[in-house]
Design goal:
The protein is an alpha+beta fold. It is built from eleven helices and nine strands. Helix 2 packs antiparallel against helix 4. Bound molecules: 3,4-dihydroxyphenylalanine (DAH).
Length: 344
């Protein structure tokens, strides 16, 4: 029995010596020290030995077993450390090396304009509307009726507005003014918000017009709001957005939801004179409509027009961007030609 034990130990030692990594060590460990190993079988056979031999052989088996386990553990620690060191060496990164260049895109020019205008109005005390008050898919009531549009107004015509085929009063909003109504229905004055977003019109696409474009709506309702304040705010906006040198003009106009109403034009800086595709040769481009909120609109949203008044405006984001950077065709914003987009 003793010989057998020594034989196993010898074989174990020579195989242990030949181990070169954790994996081969694991194999040796399984072969010599697992439950089904020859060595363990000797332990199981103890019970069949004559009584006087049991304690001697038992003690020897335990001693050798401890020795072998200790040797395996030592080797295990050694290989573990060695493999870890190698891994760390291999995976070491030199943080002083130059990084790889990862080309990044950038913000679309229209989004840049929206961000810029939003910041200007935030400085003037306006806050951004909650998105749920400014939906793009809308019902006629908020896009037209509560904005004082008469039942038969031509803007409601299918030639001008996109209607949903399956639900006749569902439309793609034709203006961001729907946000005014929803905001006023859901909050009490003072109200001072702006609402940027997409709008849709069913019209022929040209250098000046696309059937999807962007507007920024503004609304200020409080006691004693005046037309002079409207003019002051919009003049300040133009000064900050264009710089003071840009010629502009206020024109009286008409919108069903404002009284009185105005429009602001900015001089066409890319004007090609008579027949200019951008301004139709007029020399001016309209950038926004505005006015004092019609008392009928206030009544419709249960704000008392004898106590409160307000002004509102809606500006065209594409037009404002075209005028700032001398872009002569609105379609460039939507074609996604990187040669164009890269310039901003
Ligand atoms: N919604 C108008 C349009 O799309 C623009 C406009 C005019 C907005 C006057 C207003 C306003 O808020 O007061 O042409």
């Amino acid at each position: 029995m003793e010989n057998k034990i020594n034989e196993i130990k010898k074989a174990f030692l020579s195989e242990l010596e030949a181990c070169c990594d954790l994996k081969s060590l694991e194999n040796v460990k399984n072969k010599y020290l697992s439950r089904n190993s020859e060595f363990n079988n000797l332990k199981k056979g103890l019970k069949d030995l004559p009584n006087e031999q049991k304690p001697i052989i038992g003690a020897l088996l335990n001693k050798i077993s401890n020795e072998l386990n200790e040797l395996v553990n030592k080797k295990n620690d050694f290989f573990y450390k060695k493999e870890l060191d190698e891994k760390l060496k291999k995976e070491k990164i030199d943080v002083t090396l130059d990084g790889d260049y990862i080309p990044t895109g950038h913000v679309h020019p229209l989004t840049q304009t929206i961000n810029e205008i939003t910041t200007i109005f935030e400085h003037l005390g306006f806050s951004l509307i909650k998105p749920q008050y400014s939906p793009e898919v809308e019902v006629e009531k908020y896009n037209f009726d509560l904005l004082n549009f008469p039942k038969e107004h031509p803007a409601k015509d299918m030639q001008d507005t996109f209607y949903c085929e399956n639900a006749s009063n569902v439309i793609l909003r034709s203006q961001t003014s729907n946000a005014q109504v929803r905001q006023m229905m859901n909050s009490k004055p003072p109200i001072k918000i702006i609402s940027p977003g997409r709008v849709y019109r069913n019209e022929a696409v040209s250098a000046r017009k696309n059937n999807l474009f962007h507007q920024i709506e503004g609304l200020y309702v409080d006691k004693g709001v005046t037309m002079a304040q409207l003019k002051g705010v919009l003049n300040e906006f133009i000064r900050l957005y264009f710089g003071s040198s840009r010629p502009t003009r206020f024109r009286s106009s008409y919108f069903p939801f404002t009284e009185p109403s105005v429009e602001i034009d900015v001089q066409c800086i890319m004007c090609k004179g008579e027949g200019c595709p951008t301004c139709s040769g007029t020399g001016w481009l309209e950038i926004l409509g505005a006015g004092m909120v019609d008392p009928n609109v206030l009544k419709g949203v249960e704000i008392n027009p004898d106590i409160y008044s307000g002004f509102a405006f809606g500006m065209g984001v594409e037009r404002l961007t075209m005028l700032k950077y001398a872009i002569d065709d609105i379609r460039l914003f939507f074609n996604n030609d990187v040669r164009f987009l890269k310039q901003f």
